[in-house]
């Protein structure tokens, strides 16, 4: 009896607290940039695709909804030949973003992804790739990596010394 | 592998306050790994021993129970000692190891995401194991330029941690010379003097031996996926008859590309390949992805206009599998009603089950081996010799321990490469034995190698220079007859009580050398004799057998080996194809292609005839003229084939057959071991195992009206059983019942429904990614994994994941061990046979004493008279002589053009010059070859490249002088 009264009182009290729900979609709630919504693939500051097809996002993904294939370009860069996210399976957990060593894959504050046909929830690289660096403006993986790509020879990455001449005495 | 002696003494040691019983005589690292302790290491390798170079394996050794400080020791350099006390977890040891790895990592590039080793990198594993997770070093990284090392191996020198494993494998183990440790200080460079193809045939093992991503598989990189994304199953290498176990890795492509096979890696099998594969076996897999691959059934167009413009090659058009089966069914129905004769041609590169299905379809009397007379006779001879109770086929560990090796005529480095690698180790067995006398354990690699000048006696008799010449204590270049003479004199010397034995007349073999050989052979307790079908000489095989029998007799008489197994002589006879010996069990010597040709020529029956060719290229076995006649003499050719070849060009109906990693079957290797290979992936298009096509068509033919009305009972019964088979294991059982030799097939592996505790074995690792996305482009709902009708395995990640639990698990992974080093988790101790691994059963061949067909003297025919002709000596190449591997892109790109090797004087005699194109013509065939000169080839002999795609079959054994002429450049 007492507990029923208590519950009634609690519900009654809530009539006077501030509402947290809004009249979506007339009113859009504020979502922080770090909100975990629709996933994009970003570009590095030079405008090159960031993704190096390392597959770490794919293996981190709990519902296994990322699939891609590595290929190597003439410029020596690894890239995804295709990059597919099946959003009908994605749980927006953000583990892919956590796993990504290049900041290529990022979650955005857009969650409005509704489709009548589930097939339309399958996004390919062309659908995912945006024209900017996303949340991380500076980072470019290949400036740090040891792998040679066109425009960056051995010894030219950040923190690297000039290549050794094996035939010298190297004292 | 390097361990000597059988009876193992045990030692009780204490590690971190717990007592363990371990095998004595090993090093502490190996003992710790046997106990499944996580102890990091780099430079030690179970097959290469210890050198203490990397300092990563440090542990603390305590003087006694009161000692609290202890001393740091390198576990790989410390022999286990009974009663000793060690600690892996002591802070001193942990700090030291963390310091070492931090040091190694100071120069390491920021490459993991774009490194092919990533995800199966021993360095990643060890870094994590040692707890080094944060970079503190702020200085600059030392960098190196890379080298071009050919189409197989990628070089990324910055990733090196200077463990020296690569050069120790490449130079010390495999005998390569062109990979070196260059430079000095912390700038040591592992590479060649200059860019270029690594010329050792085992270079591919660098990919697995190097603990980092310096050496990676270039062919794999072109269609790269991470190790955790590869589905795998135990398989057997199809590129020669050694029967190495492999773990091919496959993954379906997300864009519908039919090429699913991504790479081949080693699957440890102690008796055969151990830790290493040859490059043909590792890179030959690309044939399954080649442009010549057949994915759909094809039928020849019948419009006469197209026929005439295309010559004898036909123009083909795809048709649906149902139509294809229906077409084959019509042929079978006609056969059933007695209105058509169907001749089945089996294959020595296809499984026993496939061959048996074909034999069941056509009947034993219409079944022919897809081999010419000579090849089949050689195989039958090998089979007869191996049945003799006085000899046995040695496995790799036995060859490696041999105290004398005699290689008679077979160029094993090119025809049975893994065996050549074993022989190379045998060359050191004397050194290791001497070390043993000095109480130096075999794993003390550097100390053992200090004992220079001690070599195992190794006689290499060959037609041309071979890759084993550098380790041979005695080299003989001779024609087969001379080798026969040599073997026989050696045999005589062993059996003769006394009396003069004269060295045979062979250029380059003087009496002193010969006497030494005889003496060495008399002393040897475990000699191994190696020969094979390569030179296509029955006399040579028989001579090898006679020598082996003499050795067996000598062993029994002089070494008083009580165990009768010990008294048997070790005789390894190399066969050409992965299932050569298996096919030889299914037919007698008469059932060969030449015989078939003769029969077809002589009889003129009006009955329509079909040639049903299974995974064999007639044009590779027969001279083109003979093959043409054979094809023209029948009114229908149906072929089951993996890749297009000259026979399929003439076929009226082509059915796409599964390649070895796409189906389950049994292959018999040169040693008479029947091994099962499992389907790694499902195969693209309409590919299925050949026996399934035949079974489908047999079933369909039964439904055709009228088929049952006539024809004989026996045929109907055969076809009914063929039509009823659903699982390949049913064929194995039927084979076991039909052929007593093949009885072990019934116990070869788990049947398709034999799950373990209700579970199947997973082909995909537990971290297989992209399951719900990879097919989503075409259909967002996931496909159900295909069922496997042949093995208790799943084409998914569901089921058993650990190789200890299921013999079918080929994924080499254990928690904390993502690299291939995980294999020690599946061995009782490093280097020992895998736990729970049941691959292979020896054939149950009845022991029959072998009687040489000809007496010793008769075999040696006089060499050809230079005035009228030349002997042909078939020469082989690792790249070029393999039928299937020739379709592999990377291998094809480094295969030399077909050649003929002459002695300089012969070249002069024929007025030819080296480097010139020449033509050899014989019975209508014409071979365009590059003339080469070599002073190591015997006179009046021409060494001709064999098995090359461009020339298919090789000229006969004897060529007239007029048949050799300058060719078109
Ligand atoms: S957010 Fe989570 S579920 Fe979605 S793709 Fe990334 S890892 Fe997978
Ligand atoms: S983790 Fe990042 S770089 Fe790697 S494949 Fe995924 S998106 Fe590309
Ligand atoms: S290249 Fe590889 S195997 Fe050779 S020393 Fe460097 S890390 Fe070791
Ligand atoms: S030795 Fe023969 S069986 Fe072994 S990997 Fe090489 S080709 Fe394959
Ligand atoms: S593994 Fe012991 S020092 Fe390298």
UniProtKB/TrEMBL annotation, chain A:
<comment type="function">
    <text>NDH-1 shuttles electrons from NADH, via FMN and iron-sulfur (Fe-S) centers, to quinones in the respiratory chain. The immediate electron acceptor for the enzyme in this species is believed to be ubiquinone. Couples the redox reaction to proton translocation (for every two electrons transferred, four hydrogen ions are translocated across the cytoplasmic membrane), and thus conserves the redox energy in a proton gradient.</text>
</comment>
<protein>
    <recommendedName>
        <fullName>NADH-quinone oxidoreductase subunit I</fullName>
        <ecNumber>7.1.1.-</ecNumber>
    </recommendedName>
</protein>
<dbReference type="Pfam" id="PF12838">
    <property type="entry name" value="Fer4_7"/>
</dbReference>
<feature type="binding site">
    <location>
        <position position="96"/>
    </location>
    <ligand>
        <name>[4Fe-4S] cluster 2</name>
    </ligand>
</feature>
<keyword id="KW-1003">Cell membrane</keyword>
<comment type="subunit">
    <text>NDH-1 is composed of 14 different subunits. Subunits NuoA, H, J, K, L, M, N constitute the membrane sector of the complex.</text>
</comment>
<keyword id="KW-0408">Iron</keyword>
<feature type="binding site">
    <location>
        <position position="61"/>
    </location>
    <ligand>
        <name>[4Fe-4S] cluster 2</name>
    </ligand>
</feature>
<feature type="binding site">
    <location>
        <position position="51"/>
    </location>
    <ligand>
        <name>[4Fe-4S] cluster 1</name>
    </ligand>
</feature>
<dbReference type="InterPro" id="IPR010226">
    <property type="entry name" value="NADH_quinone_OxRdtase_chainI"/>
</dbReference>
<keyword id="KW-0479">Metal-binding</keyword>
<keyword id="KW-1278">Translocase</keyword>
<keyword id="KW-0520">NAD</keyword>
<keyword id="KW-0874">Quinone</keyword>
<feature type="domain" description="4Fe-4S ferredoxin-type">
    <location>
        <begin position="81"/>
        <end position="110"/>
    </location>
</feature>
<dbReference type="InterPro" id="IPR017896">
    <property type="entry name" value="4Fe4S_Fe-S-bd"/>
</dbReference>
<feature type="binding site">
    <location>
        <position position="90"/>
    </location>
    <ligand>
        <name>[4Fe-4S] cluster 2</name>
    </ligand>
</feature>
<keyword id="KW-0411">Iron-sulfur</keyword>
<feature type="binding site">
    <location>
        <position position="100"/>
    </location>
    <ligand>
        <name>[4Fe-4S] cluster 1</name>
    </ligand>
</feature>
<keyword id="KW-0677">Repeat</keyword>
<keyword id="KW-0560">Oxidoreductase</keyword>
<feature type="binding site">
    <location>
        <position position="54"/>
    </location>
    <ligand>
        <name>[4Fe-4S] cluster 1</name>
    </ligand>
</feature>
Automatic annotation (TrEMBL), chain B:
<keyword id="KW-0004">4Fe-4S</keyword>
<dbReference type="Pfam" id="PF04879">
    <property type="entry name" value="Molybdop_Fe4S4"/>
</dbReference>
<dbReference type="InterPro" id="IPR000283">
    <property type="entry name" value="NADH_UbQ_OxRdtase_75kDa_su_CS"/>
</dbReference>
<dbReference type="InterPro" id="IPR009010">
    <property type="entry name" value="Asp_de-COase-like_dom_sf"/>
</dbReference>
<dbReference type="InterPro" id="IPR036010">
    <property type="entry name" value="2Fe-2S_ferredoxin-like_sf"/>
</dbReference>
<keyword id="KW-0830">Ubiquinone</keyword>
<keyword id="KW-0411">Iron-sulfur</keyword>
<dbReference type="GO" id="GO:0016491">
    <property type="term" value="F:oxidoreductase activity"/>
</dbReference>
<comment type="similarity">
    <text>Belongs to the complex I 75 kDa subunit family.</text>
</comment>
<keyword id="KW-0520">NAD</keyword>
<keyword id="KW-0874">Quinone</keyword>
<comment type="subunit">
    <text>Composed of 13 different subunits. Subunits NuoCD, E, F, and G constitute the peripheral sector of the complex.</text>
</comment>
<keyword id="KW-0001">2Fe-2S</keyword>
<keyword id="KW-0479">Metal-binding</keyword>
<dbReference type="InterPro" id="IPR050123">
    <property type="entry name" value="Prok_molybdopt-oxidoreductase"/>
</dbReference>
<feature type="domain" description="4Fe-4S Mo/W bis-MGD-type">
    <location>
        <begin position="230"/>
        <end position="292"/>
    </location>
</feature>
<feature type="domain" description="4Fe-4S His(Cys)3-ligated-type">
    <location>
        <begin position="92"/>
        <end position="131"/>
    </location>
</feature>
<dbReference type="InterPro" id="IPR019574">
    <property type="entry name" value="NADH_UbQ_OxRdtase_Gsu_4Fe4S-bd"/>
</dbReference>
<dbReference type="InterPro" id="IPR006963">
    <property type="entry name" value="Mopterin_OxRdtase_4Fe-4S_dom"/>
</dbReference>
<keyword id="KW-0408">Iron</keyword>
<dbReference type="InterPro" id="IPR054351">
    <property type="entry name" value="NADH_UbQ_OxRdtase_ferredoxin"/>
</dbReference>
<dbReference type="InterPro" id="IPR006656">
    <property type="entry name" value="Mopterin_OxRdtase"/>
</dbReference>
